[in-house]
Design goal:
The chain contains 18 helices and 15 strands. By secondary structure, it is an alpha/beta fold.
Length: 529
Amino acid sequence: MQNLKYKLRLKINKKLVKPTLLVPQCHNCPRVLKQEISSDINKLFPTVTKNLTGTFLKVSAKPGLALNAVFGKDPQGKITLAGGFCNEIFLILQKKFEFNFSVQFQDGFGKRLPNGTFSGIVGSIQRGEADIAIDIGLSAQRTEVIEYLPPVIFTTVRFFTKMPAHVPRWKLILEPFTASLWLAIFLCLGVISVSYFCFIISEKKIRNIPLQSMSWGTMLRNSGGFIFKPILEQDITDSMWDHIQILRLLATIWFFVSIVFATAYRAKLTTLRSIPLPEIVPETFKELAESEYKPTLHFVGGMIYASIEGSSNPVFKTIGKKLGLEKVLQTCLVEALQGGSACIAMDSITVYEGVKNFSNVDGNAVLRMSKDAFFSIFGGAALKKHSVLSQDFSRSIRRLFDMGIVKRLQDIELTRARQRGRLWAKMKAREEKWRESNNDSPNALSIVDIYAVLIVISIYWLISVGTFSAEFLWVKRRWEFILRISGLIYCDHKTSSNQDRKFKTLSNKYTHSLNVTEKLKFLNYLSHI
């Protein structure tokens, strides 16, 4: 060894973690010539490291999920990675292990065929046409032919609807008429109607009037008019009203009771000023199945559709009967924004598309996500079964996950999408009304609405008081009749004032044309007042 003129020495650069071959080094020469040559250490010492310098990997992918993986083409027509946090993780692995790659598209993720093979991405790896898949969901069937790396995709299946619209103000004004308020109103009406029937029957029995003279249908029809009689008609000499003063009292009491109802209505209405009522939209899958909304599934692969179709849950059986399919997520969300439709999709991808393409000028999404989820989906990269790259790739991905880099990459993608969506929404706000900021949340009643209701209630209260006064103080177009009654009364007491003589003259003039029988009937009527 000492007689060798040239020696080869391998040196590892600790900073670059890159092998360097120093050749030649002449010990007997006066000058030392050093030349650094990049070496494939995996070929020299395959058991020392897993450096993939010079290795070419074929990547299989399916375009469509922008949050996970975005692809483009260079001027030569070669498929390139153009975004998505899954692509970013793959590029980190590529820089670490220094391999080359090419991307090829597949139609679908992977479905088992009748002959036992798989289609799509899984099939390309199974047939040896690809070495790795970037973005693919995990399923038990696929693990038979491919090996998954640690998952970096964690998502659930939910449905999305439009944000609750404004409830019109005329609906808000009618909203306080709750079931309890209506129940109290109808109970009061029922008590008055029953009292009306009872007093009618008792009055007829006292006066020996046949009950057949008034049918129950007539009495029922009169009960409605009886309640509003004090307002619509103040003629106290009219028909049977002249003899049933207790019922007249009940009628006026009804209007005072209605003031209590109006007060309860006003109290409920005032709460709508601070607690607005949004439009009712389904929030759970059970509500979606029971509603008139049409469910539309974003068809990414067959896994979600097969889960819904094969579910034994009656809720999802109902949803499956009216389920529609849509391959383009943007189209599915547009139908949801138009109303009457719910888009079933993976939440992470839908949120990304929502803030990018369906946000308002403030950068907020205009879609509402359901409270519950259908099932969870895990996914990430996958290799062929028993691949020698599995252990090292898995170790690197776990480190990225533990360091929070995976979550950070997701947040960066969402932030970029929100910024792009906000800028685009400002340009589209004039064309699409749902992008305006004032449509973010439902409005409450204004103070003007409250004052308007108070004015209506005050007018109603004045009508009730006026009705009571008309019944018991004998006002409103009946002064002549009061003078007639007063004339008879003063005539009986033989007073001699000028006022009394006027009353007497007026009463004599009124009763002069009556015969004896009519006068007795008239005096009998006065005795019942």
